[in-house]
Specification:
The complex is a heterotrimer of chains A (290), B (321) and C (330).
Chain A (H helix, E strand, L loop, with lengths): L8 H16 L1 H18 L1 H4 L31 H37 L1 H15 L3 H12 L3 H28 L2 H8 L4 H37 L11 H7 L9 H28 L1 H4 L1
Helix pairs in contact in A: 2-4, 2-11, 4-5, 4-7, 4-9, 5-7, 6-7, 7-9, 9-10, 9-11, 10-11
Chain B lengths: L3 E14 L8 E14 L3 E5 L6 H8 L7 E6 L2 E2 L5 H10 E4 L13 H12 L4 H14 L16 H13 L5 E5 L7 H18 L2 E6 L2 H7 L2 E6 L2 E7 H6 L4 H9 L39 H5 L5 E4 L2 E3 L6
Parallel strand pairs in B: 3-8, 3-9, 6-7, 7-8
Antiparallel strand pairs in B: 1-2, 1-4, 4-5, 9-10, 10-12, 11-12
Helix pairs in contact in B: 3-5, 4-5, 5-6
Chain C lengths: L7 E12 L2 E13 L4 E5 L6 H8 L7 E10 L2 E2 L5 H7 L4 E4 L3 H4 L6 H13 L7 H10 L4 H4 L9 H13 L5 E5 L7 H18 L2 E6 L2 H7 L2 E6 L2 E7 H6 L4 H9 L37 H5 L5 E4 L2 E3 L15
Parallel strand pairs in C: 3-8, 3-9, 6-7, 7-8
Antiparallel strand pairs in C: 1-2, 1-4, 4-5, 9-10, 10-12, 11-12
Classes of the chains: A mainly alpha (290), B alpha/beta (321), C alpha/beta (330).
């Protein structure tokens, strides 16, 4: 092994350029700020939350926002502020796992289809088309209902409906990359299919998929919240935002705060991810990069 | 008699063209009936315009494209049937440098890994040995060993071609295809790269197949020349013979079209009329007849054979000049 | 100031591009001039600014680029000061431009005849459909079959035919100047010869001047009357073609000519050492000095002026003293 791994200077150059473009777009900065707050919130949730999010106290149920309970309390007397804060961890966990799972499935299916082409491509892509033929929320609901509503199954259900985008994306990238001279050079040197596919073609597909993943993180939260709202997602008393909005449904007229605060948080985080995703896409756009 | 390194017989590489199911199946006849002997230690230039099939020929010889029919022998051994270990050994001996310096190096890998990839496939040697070997090849092609810790985009076009060449020679091959290695480079850089190619050929005892459209380069670098037109070899022989006495009208007009960097050089204007025909549906008879100033009705009817008009000088024409 | 060229006189042209890496000083005081009907070759290697110069003359420099200084006197008007509207009446009418990639310069979804007609309609202020007789004449002039090509889409034409269409489009309005940016670099040699022949023939017939941007010394030698050599955003040498090839003065020109391979030349090619400089941090003084075999102390300090060494032979190099050079320090 080498002892001295040298950090390449132009990598820094590249990074500087990215930062330069990032700073030029105000919306991207706002998006980044929202996401940063979201991440900090999730990281320090137990320190920020003043109460136990699942502790019920019927004596203080349905209280309006006050200094004691910033966002008020729900029908079981649980502190909504604490629930929202702790709920960010659930949301983050879902985003993280769904992205990893659906991203990996998508890349592997897409690269295999794109690299081998022909019959392999036909079969894999028709399977992908089958998944795309249903509205994603309906499909996620079906899976969640089939597997039973809990956190793990929510994650599986969402992953199963989102990998298709990444599969198509990495297939397109693999088709483009496999005919490049640098791949041909490895074949000329005697490299086999698996080697070329995994060591050389696959790494090229990662970055477009990553961009797409950030763009879709908002949608993931939204889908998870929808499942939660419909009772097909994370079950109470776990403070999942969508389920919390659903909890307040019956009290919407008089006790508006039960649904509103988790709803605002969903909206902000989705907005943050969308702004950041758009920004990242623009930053990586080769036309803007030169 | 010089030993033949690569022997090509009746080589055909056709690509199917998708047409509607009802029409007859059509083929692009990219390489059609090519016969060639590349002598060991020579620089064999293959000259042609776009659509002549020169690049397809090179890729077929390296088995990056499978031919439709024909034979390719490397050191007397037929390589078209090879599989597994034997194929791997032939692959090591035949390398390629591509035209486009910007797409021929993996954009996300260190130069060390780009050059080292082939060694990892072929040699069972340690990481340190690989590094030492890379350092020495980089020096050989005129770069420094520190360059192995960089990425391709940090280099200029000329340097990239040097790296691509280092990747080829690191495997100690006997034969290298140079597919227009300098056509994307500026002239002053081209001069340096050509010089390096010439020097290393002698040092490493290599044989080159030099694919190009630029006749000026051929005169500088090659020993033998094959001129291709719409998938066929139309003229082949020693460089000096072909440049002094081009015998196929196509070769002759190709030379007349080549601009000479000397304003004092006045020559009669001879233009080739028309455009290069498609290789899906090449003209009947001699494929050049519709652009040839000397063609008659025999040329449109009867396809000429590639025949030897003088020892070692072959021409595919009924009426060689 | 007396103009050196009656048709076009570019002096002290500076163009910069603002990028994240800093300011790219793409043109650093370019000098260039042309008479009516003349063919000027602008040669140089990648990044020398030859294409930027042609775009600047057409006033087509776009963000993040900017013309910072200098004059472009075309036909008595300083183009740098003209409004975009007035410039629009010159562009495509009094001067037009053809590019390296003819196919990507044509609109793929419009018929060829319509696109040429558009150019004529703009200059004559008539309806496009009334231009068709003229379009046909133009297509015939560039050696194409008008009946067939007028209703073709660009993808139905080969590269050579597309370039003919571009030339027809460029000359349809009888401009005084045609700027051709590497018009034959994407074409095969036999087609290149046809296109150069066509440009030559049409320029004779229509009397337009041609500014030919190229990297190919062979093309220059065959086509141009005058040559301007550029290096790293500067004009370094200007002379008649015959003179430049016979007696190049600037060390860069000399090096360039020695590096060109040609049929009949089997001696060693001589390369210029080093590489083209980075224009964010160009070398001080003469930008060629780090690669120059004759560099002196002054070359590192001051940029050499572009002066007339012999009649109609200009060089920017301290190795040569100009006839009418006025030293600034006395």
């Amino acid at each position: 092994m080498e002892k001295t791994v040298k950090v390449s200077k132009p990598f820094m150059d590249d990074l500087k350029h990215t930062v330069f473009l990032w700073r030029k777009s105000r919306l991207t900065m706002i998006g980044s700020a929202i996401i940063l707050i979201f991440l900090l919130m999730a990281a320090f949730a137990p320190l920020i939350a003043p109460y136990d999010p699942v502790h019920q106290d019927l004596q203080i149920k349905l209280q309006a926002p006050s200094w004691q309970h910033l966002f008020g309390t729900d029908q079981f007397g649980r502190d909504i502020f604490s629930r929202v804060i702790i709920g960010s961890r659930i949301a983050l966990w879902i985003i993280f796992l769904v992205s990893v799972i659906s991203g990996s499935i998508g890349i592997i299916v897409g690269v295999t289809a794109g690299y081998f082409g022909g019959i392999v491509d036909e079969v894999l892509m028709r399977i992908t088309d089958m998944f795309l033929a249903f509205p994603s929320l309906v499909l996620a609901m079906a899976f969640a209902a089939m597997l039973g509503p809990n956190l793990t199954n929510t994650i599986i259900a969402i992953s199963v409906v989102t990998w298709t985008t990444y599969a198509r994306l990495s297939r397109a990238e693999a088709i483009k990359v496999k005919s490049q001279p640098y791949i041909e050079a490895i074949r000329a040197a005697g490299g086999g299919n698996l080697r070329i596919m995994f060591l050389h073609v696959l790494p090229m597909c990662i970055s477009p998929v990553l961009v797409q993943l950030t763009l879709r993180m908002g949608t993931i939260i939204l889908t998870a919240a929808s499942l939660g709202f419909l009772g097909l997602g994370v079950q109470p008393p776990t403070p999942e935002w969508g389920a919390m909005v659903s909890d307040g449904r019956n009290y919407l007229i008089d006790q508006w705060w039960i649904s509103t605060f988790p709803g605002i948080f969903i909206a902000f985080v989705v907005l943050g991810f969308n702004l950041l995703g758009d920004g990242i896409r623009d930053m990586l756009d080769p036309r803007l990069r030169r | 008699m010089v030993e033949t390194l690569i022997k090509i017989r009746d080589l055909k590489t056709y690509f199917p063209v998708k047409k509607s199911i009802f029409s007859k199946k059509l083929f692009v006849r990219a390489v059609d009936n090519v016969n060639m002997d590349v002598p060991k230690g020579s620089t064999f230039a293959v000259v042609g315009e776009s659509g002549s099939g020169k690049t397809t020929l090179a890729r077929t010889v390296l088995r990056l494209i499978e031919p439709t029919s024909g034979e390719i022998e490397f050191e007397g051994k037929d390589i078209l049937g090879l599989r597994g270990k034997d194929l791997l050994e032939v692959r090591r001996n035949m390398q390629i440098v591509f035209q486009d310096p910007y797409n021929s190096l993996h954009p996300r890998k260190l130069i060390k890994n780009i050059i080292g990839e082939g060694m990892k496939i072929h040699f069972k040697i340690s990481e340190i040995e690989i590094r030492d070997r890379i350092a020495s090849v980089l020096k050989e092609v005129g770069l420094i060993d520190d360059h192995m810790y960089r990425y391709a985009h940090e280099f200029s076009g000329g340097q990239r071609q040097r790296i691509a060449f280092a990747r080829a020679i690191v495997l100690k091959p006997k034969f290298i295809v140079l597919d227009e290695p300098t056509s994307a480079l500026d002239v002053s850089v081209q001069a340096m790269v050509l010089k390096m190619l010439k020097e290393i050929k002698v040092q490493e005892n290599l044989t080159y197949m030099f694919i190009t459209h630029n006749l000026s380069l051929v005169d500088y670098i090659a020993d033998k020349v094959a001129v291709m037109y719409v998938g066929e070899v139309v003229e082949m022989g020693d460089k000096t013979t072909i440049f002094k006495h081009p015998s196929h009208p196509y070769t002759d007009l190709l030379m007349a079209s080549n601009p000479i960097p000397d304003p004092k050089f006045v020559r009669e204007k001879r233009l080739m009329k028309g455009e290069i025909p498609s290789s899906i549906n090449p003209p009947s008879g001699c494929r050049f007849h519709n652009r040839c100033p000397f063609a008659d009705e025999r040329c449109a009817r009867e396809e000429p054979e590639l025949r030897e008009i003088k020892p070692g000088h072959l021409v595919r024409c009924h009426y060689p000049l | 100031m007396e103009l050196r060229g009656k048709l076009l006189d570019v002096s002290n042209l500076k163009v910069s591009f603002y990028t994240y890496r800093g300011v790219v000083k793409a043109l650093n005081g370019v000098e260039l001039w042309m008479d009516s009907g003349e063919r000027l070759g602008v040669v140089g290697e990648t990044g020398c600014g030859k294409s930027v110069t042609s775009l600047a003359v057409m006033r087509l420099i776009e963000q993040p680029g900017e013309i910072q200084e200098g004059k472009i006197i075309f036909n008595g008007k300083n183009l740098v000061e003209l409004s975009e509207e007035k410039m629009n009446n010159i562009r495509g009418v009094e001067m037009s431009m053809i590019f390296q990639e003819p196919r990507s310069s044509l609109n793929p979804v419009m018929k060829v005849g319509y696109q040429i007609g558009e150019a004529i309609a703009k200059s004559k202020k008539i309806k496009i459909k009334n231009t068709y007789p003229e379009v046909k004449d133009m297509l015939r002039l560039v050696g194409l079959d008008p009946e067939r090509v007028i209703n073709s889409y660009p993808h139905e034409l080969s590269g050579g035919m597309s370039q003919r269409v571009m030339i027809g489009m460029g000359l349809a309005t009888h401009p005084k100047l045609l700027i051709a940016d590497e018009p034959t670099s994407a074409l095969d040699v036999t087609i290149q010869a046809q296109i150069l022949e066509l440009l030559d023939e049409l320029a004779r017939k229509m009397g337009n001047a041609v500014m030919l941007i190229t990297h190919d010394m062979g093309v220059v030698a065959e086509f141009c009357d005058k040559v301007l050599v550029m290096y790293a955003g500067n004009s370094v040498e200007y002379a008649s073609t015959a003179r430049l090839f016979e007696k190049p003065l600037h060390p860069y020109t000399g090096g360039l000519l020695q590096a060109v391979p040609r049929v009949g030349r089997t001696d060693e090619l001589k390369a210029i050492k080093g590489t083209v400089p980075d224009l964010v941090n160009p070398p001080s003084g003469c930008r060629f000095h780090p690669r120059c075999p004759h560099a002196m102390d002054i070359c590192k300090l001051e940029r050499p002026p572009f002066v007339e060494i012999e009649p109609d032979h200009y060089v920017a190099c301290y190795l040569f003293k100009g006839k009418n050079e006025v030293r600034e320090d006395g």
